[in-house]
Task: inverse folding
């Protein structure tokens, strides 16, 4: 049985917020999905499920908010170009 990577995943989730770098969020989200799947299958130590889930949530929210901001910026730029 493999050890969980909850601490690393949570650190990536926190880093995605602190550094405003969505790449940490993507990493946290992807690693957490993989680890949670392994925990449910009994292939990984399930004691880190809560911390893994917390890191996944932080990473996912960071990615979604980054995409919303980027879409807003593109939309604002499009409006500015259309108006000028």
Result:
């Amino acid at each position: 049985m493999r050890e969980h990577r909850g601490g690393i995943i949570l650190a990536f989730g926190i880093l995605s917020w602190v550094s405003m770098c969505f790449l940490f969020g993507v990493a946290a989200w992807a690693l957490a999905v993989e680890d949670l799947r392994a925990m449910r299958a009994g292939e990984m130590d399930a004691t880190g499920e809560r911390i893994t889930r917390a890191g996944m949530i932080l990473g996912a929210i960071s990615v979604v908010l980054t995409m919303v901001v980027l879409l807003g910026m593109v939309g604002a730029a499009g409006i500015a170009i259309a108006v000028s």
The longest helix spans residues 49-83. Residues 29 and 57 are 7 Å apart (CA to CA). The chain has one domain: 6-83.
